[in-house]
Structures are given as C-alpha cells and as structure tokens.
Amino acid sequence: MILGSTRNCEGNYLPNGRDPNACYGNGKMSVFQELVDAYEMNNGHPITDPQSGYNPNGVWNGTIWDGLAFTPVSNVSNMYLNRDPRFYATIFFQNDVWAYQNNSRPLEYAWWQNNNGASDAWPKGGTNCETGYNWRKWSDPNVNLKAGNTNANRNFPLIRLAEMYLNYAEAMNEYLASPTSDVYNAINMVRGRVSMPGLPIIASDNTKAGMRLRIQNERRVEFAFENQRFWDVRRWMIAQQVDNAVMHGLNARPTPQQLNATGLDVNSYAAGLAVFYQVVPDQTRIFQPKHYLFPIPQSEIDIDSELKQNYGW
Hints:
The chain has 11 helices and 6 strands. The strands form 3 sheets. A two-stranded antiparallel sheet has the order 1-2. Strands 3-4 form a two-stranded antiparallel ribbon.
C-alpha cells in the first residue's frame, strides 16, 4: 500500500524532546516492557533462558546504528545489549540515538522536575510517551522535523514474504506430531534475514508445544506494529492470558516522593535517572471470553429477528 509523500509518521511517533538537539516529534506511541522483553538475545536464546547471557544490571558503551551511520553511545543499559537486531530497528530506548546529524543528543526518557522540555519522556503537554520507550519502525532518518522541509515516501505492505514463511511453519507444526526440518527451515528463512541463529536452539524447540511458542514469539517481533498481534492472539485463543493483565513500562513518570527518596536534587537529571529503570505498572487490560467476537449491532438484529447475539453480549 503506497502512501503519499508526508512526514506524518515521524511527526507522530518520533520522541518528543523540544530542545534544539532533540527529534521534535510527539512521541504518541508508548511501547510496553512486555514487547521489549519478547526480543531474544542475538544468540537466539529468550532472555528468560539461563543460557542467554541476559543481564539487566549495569551499562555498556559502544556504537548503535542511528538510521544513517553507526554512532557512539554510552551508559546504555545492559537490558539492551546483544539483542535481536529487530529490537534496535523497532524500538527507541534510553540513550539510543536517531539520525544524529539532525538530532545530536541521545534520547533521554528519564524525567525530572525541572527538565525544561529537554526530556523525551512523559509528562509533557500534547505528547503521550508513558513507558520510557517509543516505536522506531517506519520512521525515515532523512526527515528533519525541525527544518520541516523533508518528507518520506513509505510503502506499507499488505502481506510480506515473512508472513508466508511463518504461516507455513505454523501450519506444519500443528499438523505434525513434532517439528521437522520443514518447520525449522521456514522459520529460519525469516530469522536468517536479520542474522539470527537458526532453530532449534533450546530443548523445547524440538516439541510441538515449544515450537508453537517460538513461532508465536517470532510473529510478535517480526510483525511488531504491523497490525498482526491483535488478530494472532485471538485466533490462538491466548488473549485471555496475554491481554488480560497489567502491562508495564519503565518509571518515566516518577512521583515527587520517589525523586526525593534518591537524596539527589529533585530538579536534576541524575534524580530522574536514579529511579528510571524501575519496571512499573502502566495500564491494566481486561479481556473477557466475549471479546473474542464482536457484538452484532442492535440495528442489524432489529432488521432480522432471527439473528442471535454473539456469546456474552
């Protein structure tokens, strides 16, 4: 699907800092910690696997692709070290970088009381980032929102080759007693494109149930923000587990009490950063069995009295 030449995507979704070196977007899409945690390590192990090497403590220095070039970064949380490359292409995080030639400071989602618009975090009038993460996917690094003189031409796919491979892998896994090379080869065509190691990797990959979870997670990270997850969790009938829960983010909106408890100047960036990496509730979602189906509009039932309302409505 071809859209016209605009910068609407960048204006809506890029981080919302308003200082001269910021992205100058509106940060309207917050990303939950649950999606961040779904991305595997680049060795193919889920972060919950003891063999993964995942360590959320401490920081690292190195370089990150800013959309145009590899740019030096520092004090990046180890939560974001050595993850699936799709993570870096999809989500903005604390001390990440974006199009450094136009936005020449790291992204700063830690919030403090006297930030004067320098933070990319919530709260800020007219913006919506709540979790310490914004989405990055679809944004064009050549768009400079401050200059206001560049647009992006975007093609949004209606169906992708990756979806065909993952559909095939899912269907074969459900058909067979246990996964075979047909299943692995199809899913590895998608993983290989981003240099992720091929399956099987962990013991559960050799079982139908274990591979089902792998395929579900592969779809989650591959198709993030592509309008797939909403329907996937319904056809898998897992929405009552994954969409009926408290969703989390980082502490991008600390209370005055939390800032005071740091013992630091509450008007300082250091105070906001000291409490930022706490995982906190952001939203409570409710999904009831009736939500698997939409209600039939009463106006349609009035037309045809033989229509029966869907379960629960």
